[in-house]
Structures are given as structure tokens and as C-alpha cells.
Amino acid sequence: ARDRGLGVSAAFPGGGPSPRRPCGAGAVRVLGAPAPLYAAPVPGPDDPAAVDRAKSVAGVYRSARRVETKFEKLFALGGETTVKAMDDGSLLIGKQRYYPYKEDVWTDRSRDRIHVSRDADGAVSGVSVRMGTDTLIPVGFFRSSAGANTAVGLAYILSITAFLGLWRRLAVRAPGATNPGRALAIGQIATAVAVIAFVGTAAGATAALSGATLTDLMEKGYPPPALNALRLAGLVAAFALATNALASPLVWTTSGWSVWRKLHHALFAAAGVWTIWALFDWRVIFAPTAAV
């Protein structure tokens, strides 16, 4: 029917059978409709333009319906949407597949369509979804949940290895080369403690609030103690990581450390700067809470 410019619809309205209507009242009705009302045929491998457009849309997106400037932005952590481009030019969003309808418009079998907006350079600036009730904004790795988790994860791992290095040096009774080196070592261990404490506080806050509803939070007082503890731990960790990074020139000039230990500190400092950025970008630090 689509090849002839028609669409077919079958309807089964109510009404019982009768001698004149053995199948029921109006059991089947065939309606004609112009083909453009229906999804366009799925392009094949010989339609590279549709495939290229789909590839340009693929990526990680964050809903525009979120808090951006306050602490509550943290609640969107892990809530990104991944758009995948398929070989036939269709898009996969979650478990829902959308097929090309026309340029920068895709539709599923129930005619739920997504519209892609582009900037002057042709890059995707937004994807309108859910019948236009929400817009997905593209987000790069360093501003995504994966980027934030990677930053904190690296800082955490390097904090653990700092303790392992301290244990090894104590085991072999290796003396510190210089007094500045000893002071820098104490500072690095203090930073490691702050990072581990922040990760533990974040895990505790997640466990404490995972089953809480908005009503629960309002009844007990907002923000709850777990979130206040998380903000405080984030500030302490950010201060410690910043101090550790600022000490990098002293590590390389006056510490007397081995090259491998200096490289470890450099990696720790880089991961620390990234973590500070992630904490600020996700409004864990230096951001007010929403008024309730």
C-alpha cells in the first residue's frame, strides 16, 4: 500500500454480532491516507547521506530539564542518554529505534519523532524528544558522568597507591632524603586521606538516600545531613588536592624523591585538578542548594 501512495488502517469498534452482521458492527474498515503520513522507507546501504547524518547525531546527551547552577545538579549524575547510530541510518535511544523520516527527523513505528537542531557549522546543538517536551543537549566526555567518575576514580586509586608506597618505604626503613621531602610526603598522605574520605562519604550518601522520595526529604528537612556531609567532604578534598598540585614544583626541586615517586605525584596532581573541576562542574562545591 505504501508503494501506491496509500496507508491501510483496520478498526474494530464495539458492537455484537447479528444475523445481518455476523462479524460485529463495523468489524473492519479500510481507510486510505497519503503515504507521507507514514514513516519513510528505511534507507539501505546505498543511502550514505542518511547514514552520515545518523553518525553525526550519535553521542552522549543530557536533558535540558535539569538544575544547572545549584547543588541539585548532582542529582543528574549518571542520567545521560546515549544515542547510537545504526548501519542503516537509524538511531537507537535506549531500547527504542528511530528510522529516518526526512533530513534531521527520525521516527519510530508509532510515529514518535525526534528532531535534530544544528548550529551554523552543522554540529548538533540539540535533539528534541518525547514529542517536543524535552531537549537533549550534547555533552563531551569531560562534562559527562563518565568523566566525573573517571576523575574521582583516578584520584582514589592514586590515593591508595600513595599509602602503599608509604607502607613500602616504612617496611624497608628508607629514610627521607630531605626535610622538605618529608613535609611533602605528609602533605600527600593527608591529601590521600581527604580523597578516600570523600569517596566514602559519597558512597554513604548514596546508600542513605537511594530509597528516599522527595516527600521523605521534605519531611526530614532539606538538605539532609548526608548531603551536607558530602558538600563538606568535597570542599576538604578540593582544598587538599589544590594544595597538593601547587606543591608540584617543590616536589621536583627540593624533595629528594626518586623519579618514579615524582611521576606518581605528578599523576596524582593532574588527577586532583581534574577532580576539582568535576566537583565544581557538578556543583558539589561552591554552589548553593535550592530553596524549598
What is the fold's blueprint, element by element?
Layout: H1 48-57, E1 59-63, E2 81-85, E3 91-93, E4 96-102, E5 105-107, E6 113-118, E7 124-129, E8 134-138, H2 145-171, H3 179-209, H4 214-220, H5 225-246, H6 248-254, H7 259-281
Antiparallel strand pairs: 1-2, 1-8, 2-3, 3-4, 4-5, 5-6, 6-7, 7-8
Helix pairs in contact: 2-3, 2-7, 3-5, 5-7
Sketch the major β-sheet.
8 strands, antiparallel, barrel
Q: Walk across the major sheet and give the strand order.
A: 1-2-3-4-5-6-7-8
Main structural class: alpha+beta
Distance separating the two termini:
57 Å
Number of helices: 7
Could you give the count of β-strands?
8
- Unreliable stretches (pLDDT < 50, length at least 5) are 1-7, 9-16, 25-39
How confident overall, as mean pLDDT? 84
Strand content: 5-15%
Order of helices and strands: HEEEEEEEEHHHHHH
Cα gyration radius (Å): 29 Å
Short description:
The protein has seven helices and eight strands; from the N terminus they run H-E-E-E-E-E-E-E-E-H-H-H-H-H-H.
Textual characterization of the structure:
- The chain is an alpha+beta fold and 292 residues long.
- It is built from seven helices and eight strands.
- It has helices at 48-57, 145-171, 179-209, 214-220, 225-246, 248-254, 259-281; strands at 59-63, 81-85, 91-93, 96-102, 105-107, 113-118, 124-129, 134-138.
- It has an eight-stranded antiparallel barrel with strand order 1-2-3-4-5-6-7-8.
- It is globular, with a radius of gyration of 29 Å.
- Mean pLDDT is 84; it is low at 1-7, 9-16 and 25-39.
